[in-house]
Design a protein that fits this description.
- Helix content is 64%, strand content 8%.
- The protein has 14 helices and five strands.
- A five-stranded mixed beta sheet has the order 2-1-3-5-4.
Amino acid sequence: IIFKNKLRINYLFSLLIFLIYPYTTDMFFLPSLQEKYAFLLFLILLNMLNKNNLLNKKYYFTLFLISFAIPLVKLQGSIFFIFFIFYFLLKKDKEGIAVISGFIIGILLQGYVIFFQESHYYNVNSSAENIIDNIFQIQNIFFLFFIFLSLLLTIPEKNKETRYLIFGISGSGLALIFLYINWETYGYLMSFYAFFIALLIPYSIQQILQILNVKIIFRLITPILLIASLLSLYLFFIPRIERWSDLNDAYDTLDNVLLDQEVYYCGSEGALTFNNLNNSKNEVIHMSNFSEIKTKDFFFINDDMQCTYFENALIGNCVIKEEIRSTFGRVKINKYSC
């Protein structure tokens, strides 16, 4: 409601864009995907700041506590610190100080756990090759385009609060991209972009229509988005259901068949899940680049939604010696010889 009113966005546009975005469906499949809980706490905090609350110690402590919790729920929650910096610059009140203080302490604690407690969750890869490969992925280019378009459209914006909200949303979005390009940009990690594009794209549409002042375009947008949502259901939602079925086949193979070579997978969290979800007879090893593999013969878990870049390298350098098929062929365990 806050964003709907302050950014003057059409709620139906926002909802349809949220559902059209391909990676949104991953949040439905993964109840443990904590990014959505970080965003929920962010909205609760923002809602509290926009209500006429009694300004007492309990209220300030609650603001501090929620702010402290957001980065601890998930590392990506730290990006909302950028949003509240702009919010504080707009309001300049004691509530903003409580929020920023909570974020700072939460981020410092999260950083200590990740970087000094031998955490294997966030494996930084700041090589120029990795950053360039990641930033030029179509998802990041798409997200960056609407971030900068929204910022450009704030130039004729007369409402100061609206401008600062867009600055905050865009700044947090850029922080998220920075985080991902130094980490990994695969699969469900992209689902967090959905929250941002569901705000930035409707705002951009509204601003452009206001500038053009052509009402017939506005009437066409809703049916276009409805058609696009049906196409997204067919092109992205159904394939994800097929992929999850194939993942179950892969789990069964790893649990019941002792493979005679090392098993690799391209996703760090995916490798952890393969190893920890069931009593697997095989250890799945995370490999982010083909050049890291030193053995001649090995198994690789092919995943058509996450490991395309890796599989392209395999096709050019190796031959398939054995293929363990799955129901839909979206996730397969292949034995390679290079």
